[in-house]
Each structure stands twice: as structure tokens, then as C-alpha cells.
Amino acid sequence: ADEKGCTPSQLALAWCMQQPGITSAIIGPRTYEQLEDNLGALNVTVTDDDLVFFDAATPPGQVCYGKPWFGEDFGPHQYRW
Description:
- This protein is an all-alpha fold.
- The protein is built from 3 helices and no strands.
- It is globular, with a radius of gyration of 16 Å.
């Protein structure tokens, strides 16, 4: 984000908009300042080299399971109703 002159949230949103499976990047600002920051993502360019760098840091297709209420089985569970 520093190299691109943007905030981490702007870079994350710009990355989302580059993903083929994402049709809409949903934002949820609570303040006007957050809205302005989110809209700044429209001015961030994510290059193919950036995507390679991001994929090396977090390979696609991997999920981080750290909480007991999240799992690959989305059926009935003690933490969901």
C-alpha cells in the first residue's frame, strides 16, 4: 500500500475488484471518512506483478481455520442455528 501511495483498505478493495470471481466489492463504511477512503480504491491500479506478489504471500485456494464456528461443513453446528 505504501508503494502505491494508498491505504491498506484501498489496496484490498482494488484487489477485490480485480478478481474474476468477484462481481461486486461490498463496502460497509460507518463514517464519511471511511466512505471517502473506500472510494479511493477506484484510483488504485493493481498490476499483474502485484497479483503475483499477493498470491505468493497468500496462495489462492487456501482457507485459514482459526475459529471453532467456521468450518467447511456448513450444516448444523453448535455455533450456528
